[in-house]
Protein: Superoxide dismutase copper/zinc binding protein
Amino acid sequence: MILHLSRPTHSTPRPLRLATALAAAGATLALAGCGAQGTKTQGTPAPHAVEAASSATKMPVPGPERATASARLMTADGQPAGTAVLTETPSGVEIAAQVQGLSAGLHGFHIHANGQCAPGPDAATGKTIPFGAAGGHFDPGMSHQHGQPGAPIDKAHAGELPNITVGADGRGTLRYLNANVTLTPGKASIMGRALVVHEKEDDYKSNPAGNSGGRVLCGVIEPAQPSSVVGQAPAPRN
Structure:
């Protein structure tokens, strides 16, 4: 009997096959992880980045522009002696005034009906007086009554303002919010009217001007120039 002997087949040991399989699986997982990480980097940006980009594209919304005006207060002989800056607010018109060259003490201060500072007749006597062309106090409520600043317009002139206190150096300032007037067009508008300072204190009761004496300073209320700030005269006009 003839025996056929075959050459033994060499196979990879089982432990080695297992190690090779595990290594291949690990490599596959590593590649998958890299792919996932790359996708995350190129995907949707983080929330804070979106917020920053959104904020950068938002444009500020400007608020309503406030009307402003100014008046150059002059003496009867045309010398500058003060300024006033007027600003429209939701509650009325804020008036910031400064004067110089006046006697120490209290001085009546009013809004007058006419935007003129020329000499003119006094309503009571008919005589020509300094700044008489400015007329009487601004009185849109037709009260025909002098009174306290801020009183209802049917009880007193809307043009009533507090006295200006002047120091020993001849200078004085006043800041006051008049709720009865406006700078915008309408019945209560004071644009184009006049501010007048008197020689004496206003008693807030005597008609027609609080027994405040003669008119010593006057200025027409006009749209403000860029340099119109308290303590600085508006830009001169040609």
User: Anything to note?
Assistant: The longest strand covers residues 80-89.
